[in-house]
Amino acid sequence: FFFKPRLLEHPNMGKFLKEKKVVIVLSGRYAGKKAVIVKNFDDGDGVRPYGHALVVGVERPPLKITRRMSAKLRAKRSRVKPFVKLINYSHIMPTRYSLDVALDKNLLEKKSLKDAATKSKVRKDVKKKLEERYNSGENMWFFRKLRF
């Protein structure tokens, strides 16, 4: 009556960490911040031999705006501070939500994060796209501070 325990391996289990999936960063400088997967690397590479993803997230969300504020102050408070980072799969938690932001795939690559000048150029491009999305009024939940 001895049974061998089965290994809980499912070779045909679906991948759920895909592009455009909204995740929450769990550790590091951006812990508790919302992000979107831009590119995923399930098998890893030479430098990072583990599953990881290139994510774009909101480091500092826009502030509250009232009707009495001037146009200049509204523009200032509508700014988004983004981050672009390669993160290990074990340090992100997927949500059921997805966000389709038209980001430049040619600009967002691993090699562009190595050089400081190109990384700032990428961050500025991401900032512009996220602010466009925020000002359009779509996906406002993504730009709110996560309360937990």
Report the major sheet. Answer: 5 strands, antiparallel
Biggest sheet strand line-up: 4-3-2-1-5
Number of distinct beta strands? 5
* Backbone CA Rg: 18 Å
How many H/I helices?
Answer: 2
| Spatial gap, N to C terminus | 48 Å
- The average pLDDT is 87
Strand content: 25-35%
Shape: globular
Structural class category = alpha+beta
Sketch the topology as an H/E string, one letter per element: EEEHEEH
Low-confidence residue ranges: none
Task: Give the % helix.
Answer: 10-25%
Mind explaining what this structure looks like?
This protein has 148 residues and is α+β, with helices and mostly antiparallel strands. The chain contains two helices and five strands, in the order E-E-E-H-E-E-H. It has helices at residues 71-77, 116-136, and strands at residues 21-25, 34-41, 52-60, 81-88, 92-98. A five-stranded antiparallel β-sheet has the order 4-3-2-1-5, with helices on one face. A hairpin with an 8-residue loop joins strand 1 and strand 2 (34-41).
Defining key terms:
single chain, 148 residues, alpha+beta, five-stranded antiparallel beta sheet, 2 helices, 5 strands, 19% helix
Write a short abstract of this structure.
With 148 residues, this protein is α+β, with helices and mostly antiparallel strands. It has helices at 71-77, 116-136; strands at residues 21-25, 34-41, 52-60, 81-88, 92-98. The longest helix has 21 residues, at 116-136.
